[in-house]
Amino acid sequence: MPDPKTGELRGNRNIKRLKRISQKKQDEEIARCLELGLEAAESINDRSISLFSRGHQPAFAGINTFMKAPYCEDVRKVGDYEAAFVGVPFDTGTTYRPGTRFGPQAVRRISAVYDGYSVDGGVDLFEELDFCDAGDIFVIPGNIEKTFDQVSMAISHIYTSGAFPIICGGDHSLGYPNVRGVAPHIDGNVGIIHFDRHIDMQDMDMDERMHTTPWYWTSNAHEDVEFHGTHHDHSHMHDVGLANCPPKNLVQIGIGGWYGSRPGSEVARERGSSVMTMKDVEELGVQKAAEMALELAWKDAKAVYLSFDIDSIDPGFAPGTGTPEPGGFTPREALEMVRLIAREGLCAMEVVEVSPPYDVNDNTSQLACRVILDALGTMVVEGKLGHRSEVMAADDE
Ligand SMILES: [Mn+2]
């Protein structure tokens, strides 16, 4: 909104603020590219260009990590970063279309188009946040339970190293092992804000813990479950729920349509999670819906986890997904919801269900990338992540 006093546009305010942010990272990258990629041909006037592409430009060139961020190959060092993108290329939990195992690579590829500077976000991600790409978790195709154990241990490693986990699926069965990697390390209740067209809360689907089941296993069935310290305590199928993930702090947004929600709805009703349909969001408006979601998720909680199923966005915009359901969010609504929710801070986030074989023009993977960037950017602006104060010069206006 324009400033109510001066009438100055938000964009102009942001541009001024962005000017105060250092260009240290950008300068370092140019020096690194010239060092590793050699000096350009004589006819090239811009001497910051190297002979071999080693950095962000050209966006269509090079070896792609997420946002062309540093590849943290030695994952023992992941704690050197404030945030870490990690791929979980697993789609054995899908019940309709597969293909999400190719999600992380597609998101990485399209992410190269972004340079981390956002006028409407008012943020320069590379300068204000140290983040890396930690590569992919070694999933076991065809074995859901072994994959869950790998995933929980890997996410737990990233989280306890001190980096904010940015988890890119993969199908939504991962919601459970992802949260199981984080929640046991939080000294208090964890709220979950879950964007989806599907309720994903039944116990089993076709005799396994598929992508229709994560919140049955994550949210606990009893308020008085004993708190356990490690994820190992929750690695058996007979455990129902993580001790500090009460269903009252689970908010499910965008639910609706005609696919597979009956068994999960019964569980949601029994346990008392909050189910916000698309119609609820439409009637409340995005701002009010986000406020309600935050209130519910944060009630007596220490942290909130964001689970974003890309199928919550209408398949007209996001066709590349396992179980499309018309009538979802527009990208503008979804991204605004994500920004409003990220303002209060998150303990980790996941974006799941991007299935590149069904995608068109990378639209779906680009939206997944935007969900990540908008959440990160918002947290940086709000001081919940990164190091804005260190790179921002004093206001000299
Ligand atoms: Mn879904």
Task: Quickly describe the structure.
The chain contains 13 helices and ten strands.
What attributes characterize this protein structure?
two-stranded antiparallel sheet; 397 residues; 13 helices; alpha/beta; binds manganese (II) ion; Arginase, Chain A
Q: Your description of this structure?
A:
The structure is a single chain. Helices cover 34% and strands 13% of the residues. Strand 7 (250-255), helix 8 and strand 8 form a beta-alpha-beta unit. The chain is globular and about 70 Å long. Residues 223-238 have low confidence and may be disordered. With 397 residues, it is of the alpha/beta class. Bound molecules: manganese (II) ion. The site of manganese (II) ion has 8 residues, from loops.
Indicate the CATH topology of the largest domain.
Arginase, Chain A
Low-confidence stretches: 223-238
H/E element string? Answer: HHEHEEHEHEHEHEHEHHEHEHH
- What percentage of the residues does DSSP assign to strands (E)? 5-15%
Give the names of the bound compounds.
Answer: manganese (II) ion
Spatial order of the strands forming the largest sheet: 4-1-5-10-9-6-7-8
**Largest sheet entry:** 8 strands, parallel
Tally of strands: 10
Gyration radius (Cα, Å) is 21 Å
Q: Estimate the global geometry from the Cα principal axes.
A: globular
- In CATH, the homologous superfamily of the largest domain goes by the name Ureohydrolase domain
Instruction: Return the CATH class of the largest domain.
Output: Alpha Beta
Overall residue-averaged pLDDT value: 93
- Write the CATH architecture name of the largest domain: 3-Layer(aba) Sandwich
Total domains, how many? 2
